[in-house]
Write a structure and sequence with these properties.
The chain is mainly beta and 65 residues long. It contains one helix and five strands, in the order ββαβββ. It has a single domain, classed as Beta-grasp domain (Ubiquitin-like (UB roll), Roll), CATH 3.10.20.30. Helix content is 11%, strand content 31%. Strands 2-1-5-3-4 form a five-stranded mixed β-sheet, covered by helices on one side.
Length: 65
């Protein structure tokens, strides 16, 4: 089991950050992903493997004034 924004999600062997974003339908262009307190660079989303028990925060960055 993993947690995404404090909600439980089924863990699947070999899943990446990109897989999690697709399964959760996070399509925002400007997001930040933090796993267990570590910011994951955008260019690593397709290769960074998720581990069972990970706590993932997905933050949508908004611009404005």
């Amino acid at each position: 089991m993993i947690w995404v924004n404090k909600e439980e999600m089924e863990y699947e062997e070999g899943m990446t950050v990109e897989d999690v974003l697709k399964k959760k339908n996070y399509t925002y262009r400007l997001i930040t992903v933090i796993i267990n307190g570590e910011v994951i660079p955008r260019d690593k989303y397709s290769t960074h493997k998720i581990k069972d028990g990970d706590k993932i925060d997905v933050i949508h960055i908004m611009s404005g004034g």
